[in-house]
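User: ok so my PI wants both of these folded by tonight, can you help

Assistant: No problem, let's get them done. Here's the first:
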Amino acid sequence: MFSHERVWAAIDAIAARHKMTPSGLARRAGLDPTTFNKSKRLAGDGRPRWPSTESIAKVMQATGTSVEEFTGFVTGGAASGVGKSPTVPALGVPLLGFAEAGGGGFFDDAGFPAGQGWDEIALPSPSADEPVYALEVSGESMMPLYRDGDVIIVSPSAAVRRGDRVVVRTRAGEVMAKVLQRRTARTIDLASLNPAYPDRQFRVDEIEWIARILWASQ
């Protein structure tokens, strides 16, 4: 049955098959990353919002999904397992080193890794809709919170507030993990995680992007 719930479940199943979040699937299909977020599936008054036929077609083209496969996901048939809801595996997100993050050409304008072929790491919580990626810590500048080899999960789209731990990339290509101490219309003040390293202040136009740290392996 082509119900609202089953059509959205089919989109989630296609994302899971390709080890992506719904946001990652939307990006691969050339859509806004929030197109398939759960918050977009109901209107403000509670009425169901359906994905457009154009967005579904773009997803099918981007993932090589046939009409028969999509229909199978919707109906819960052979493509997704008869009588079973699609199983969502642990989701993989791109994994970069801090050296790669500081290089040119690795990020799009929104601060997400560009291109394909990155190493991946499985998220501890695959239910998050927020588009994220992983950075592997190198060196001791982030001690004692983050050690060499730790992996941090960051989100460039998450709201950042004073006191949040963040990863910052400057337009000069410097990448650092700091605590957002203060942000004004002109400057950004960053506190160092390691007391052996100085706090930093930048002009707003010196910053390329700021991503909030959501989780870290310890």
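One down. Here's the second:
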Amino acid sequence: MNRVHTNREAREEGGASPAGSRLVAGAMLALAAIFVVLGTWQVQRLSWKLDLIARVEERIHAAPVPAPPPSEWPDIGQDKDEYRRVKATGFLDHDKAVLVQAVTERGAGFWVMTPMVLSDNSIILFNRGFVPSDRRDLSTRSAGEIGGTIVITGLLRMPEPGGAFLRSNDPANGRWYSRDVAAIAAAQGLANVAPYFIDADATPNPGGLPVGGMTVVSFRNTHLVYAATWYFLALMSAGAAYAIHRRLII
């Protein structure tokens, strides 16, 4: 006599065992939990990034404050200090300046990184601004080589070590691709150098070069997209676990 198979018996004979199905369902639930944790972490990162953007926006429009002196250098940090508007007084050591390759809205050229010597003999690297490739030679822009004691204003920036996204610097041949403060200081024989540099504001230089005020302030912010992706994967995994569970009980 033929026996009528139940749906459950048919699945057990032709597919995975109940134990195997429960194992898969458990794995899906575990994945859902992991995806929820990852999504929540991205939400927290989004909150941190929005707060950072708001703080930076406030800094770049604030009145300039004195550049951090040597006593504060150990506490300089990217999150709390970068893009602060600062000012410093000293003289520019043009003989120790280096040119760092740059690609800007004005085209290809160089940043002019010039040491500024302060009254206490500490040094801050000052990014005086941009010069196009055809004005690389000092003789083509000598009017901009300011002498004497001056006051500079700009944005505090953290060093660019290079290597990961930028080409490695070649100090021996005078080829610079990143604004690596420590490397520039070592190559130029500078001591007591601040662990940051200053990007010049838009105050014009004699002769028009270098051109300051070209700092690009932008932050990559994809945390919301990542959070939505992780939560969607969590929902899909939970749905798969529920579907397996439904098949087991029918």
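Residues 7-47+222-249 form one domain. The CA atoms of residues 100 and 176 lie 5 Å apart. Good luck tonight!
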